[in-house]
Q: What sequence folds into this?
């Protein structure tokens, strides 16, 4: 019985530490875009042909939101082309680094900051 209490308390302590660490890792959409997106999509969302990163500055928030939602959820609505597979992999890495975000808010940030009318 004593061992079960020790195991339970250890687990609860570990859970508390993990949850505290996760709440620490909050990034703004600007920080996430700058740290994780600019290499492939460009500083001004103009795209990067060398990295096969498409421009984002010509898409509306609605279009961006649909794409981001699709990528975060395993790409169920798009083809499984190689470039798309790379972005799905990158999206998982972004989330693993604690840089998860709301797709609607990120899409709005990209449109507000970069959209070329």
A:
């Amino acid at each position: 019985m004593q061992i079960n209490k020790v195991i339970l308390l250890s687990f609860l302590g570990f859970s508390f530490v993990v949850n505290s660490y996760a709440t620490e890792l909050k990034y703004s959409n600007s920080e996430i875009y700058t740290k994780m997106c600019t290499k492939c999509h460009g500083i001004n969302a103009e795209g990067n042909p060398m990295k096969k990163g498409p421009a984002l500055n010509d898409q509306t928030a609605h279009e961006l939101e649909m794409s981001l939602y699709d990528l975060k959820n395993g790409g169920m609505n798009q083809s499984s082309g190689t470039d798309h597979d790379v972005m799905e992999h990158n999206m998982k890495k972004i989330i693993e680094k604690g840089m998860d975000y709301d797709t609607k808010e990120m899409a709005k940030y990209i449109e507000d900051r970069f959209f070329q009318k």
Residues 14-23 have pLDDT under 50 and may be disordered.
